[in-house]
Amino acid sequence: QVQLVESGGGLVQAGGSLRLSCAASRIIFSINPMGWYRQAPGKQRELVAIITSGGSTNYADSVKGRFTISRDNAKNTVYLQMNSLKPEDTAVYYCYTGPGYWGRGTQVTVSS
C-alpha cells in the first residue's frame, strides 16, 4: 500500500518560513505527479501546488510567488517551501498522489 508521510509543520510568525516534506513509499515515485493540499478549519480542502513527473509546477493564486514545490526522485520526497507566511495560510497540509492516496497531514500555524 502506498504511504505518504508529511513532516515539517509547526508554529511560525507571520512573514516567516517553513519547509514541508513528504516521503513516499511503495510507489514508482519518479513517474507520479505529486501535490500539496491544505484544509483550514471550517473550509474545504484546496489545492496548494502540484508538480508533474517532469517537474512542471502549478500553484494556487493565493500562494504564487511565496511557495515553491519541488521533488527529489532519488529520495522519493516532495517538498513545499513556504515563505512570507500569512495567518491565512494556517491549515493542515496534506500530501497527495493519484489515484487517491493521501498523507495524514501536518499542521501549519501562522501567528499574526
List the helices and strands and how they pair.
Layout lengths: L2 E5 L2 E4 L4 E8 L8 E6 L6 E6 L5 E3 L7 E6 L4 E6 L8 E7 L3 E2 L3 E6 L1
Parallel strand pairs: 2-11
Antiparallel strand pairs: 1-3, 3-8, 4-5, 4-9, 5-6, 7-8, 9-10, 9-11
Give the total of beta strands. 11
General form: globular
**In percent, how much strand structure appears in the residues?**
over 45%
What Rg do the Cα atoms give?
A: 13 Å
Terminal CA distance reads 40 Å
Q: Roughly what percent helix? A: under 10%
Unreliable residue stretches: none
Oligomer: single chain
Structural class by secondary-structure content: mainly beta
Main beta-sheet annotation: 7 strands, mixed
Average of pLDDT: 96
Can you describe this structure?
With 112 residues, the chain is mostly beta strands. 0% of the residues lie in helices and 53% in strands. A hairpin with a 3-residue loop joins strand 9 and strand 10 (101-102). The N and C termini lie far apart (40 Å). The mean pLDDT is 96.
